[in-house]
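Help needed: design a sequence for this.
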């Protein structure tokens, strides 16, 4: 069996004009995760990220030196675009800057998107689901790097929620509940062999295992 670790990027810059940057805490979270994996003697044979800067910064701060491959299927859905379409172009300040209001609103917006609404969005739900599936096939392609048994991917909460929902054959809307639970720099582990693709571990944070480090845990 081969092993796929999918890591959510470190804390990004919530509420900023440029969200696609790790915060200082995000870099520290990433470094802690990389150190923990090396302590566990878990060294990847293959590295993959999406094309987003926060994903690449996370991998760099984890300290693995090999050059990663990229697949845009591991990118987050464009929640800025979905919210703009939902509100007709101007997202209220409270939704932009207040975490509770933001995620409460986002949940309902994604449900509508999954149901075929928000037709003016840049990407429809079916396109998102298809590219995540294509990214999974890419990461699990044994011909891409023969002999690779440990593949590490840095992705985002939406694709991780979708990968887990598909592995569990869960209802479509379960993706949202999974997505909104995913912690920054958490580990979601899958095993695969041929067509078999199974979930082994979801949203684990062994690098935040003691009381002091637990204070560094974030969700956005």
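Sure. Designed sequence:
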């Amino acid at each position: 069996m081969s092993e796929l670790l999918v890591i959510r990027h470190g804390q990004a810059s919530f509420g900023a004009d440029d969200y696609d940057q790790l915060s200082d805490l995000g870099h520290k979270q990433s470094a802690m995760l990389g150190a923990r994996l090396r302590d566990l003697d878990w060294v990847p044979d293959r590295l993959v990220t999406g094309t987003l800067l926060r994903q690449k910064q996370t991998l760099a701060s984890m300290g693995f030196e090999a050059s990663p491959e990229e697949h845009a299927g591991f990118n987050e859905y464009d929640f800025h675009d979905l919210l703009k379409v939902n509100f007709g172009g101007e997202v209220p300040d409270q939704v932009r800057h207040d975490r509770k209001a933001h995620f409460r609103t986002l949940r309902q917006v994604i449900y509508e998107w999954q149901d075929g609404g928000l037709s003016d969005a840049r990407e429809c739900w079916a396109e998102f689901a298809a590219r995540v599936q294509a990214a999974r096939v890419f990461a699990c392609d044994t011909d891409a790097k023969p002999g690779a048994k440990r593949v590490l991917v840095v992705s985002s909460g939406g694709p991780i929620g979708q990968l887990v929902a598909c592995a569990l054959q869960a209802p479509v809307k379960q993706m949202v509940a999974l997505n909104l639970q995913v912690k920054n720099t958490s580990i979601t582990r899958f095993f695969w062999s041929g067509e078999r693709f199974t979930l082994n571990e979801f949203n684990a944070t062994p690098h935040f295992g003691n009381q002091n480090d637990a204070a560094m845990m974030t969700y956005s």
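The radius of gyration is 17 Å.
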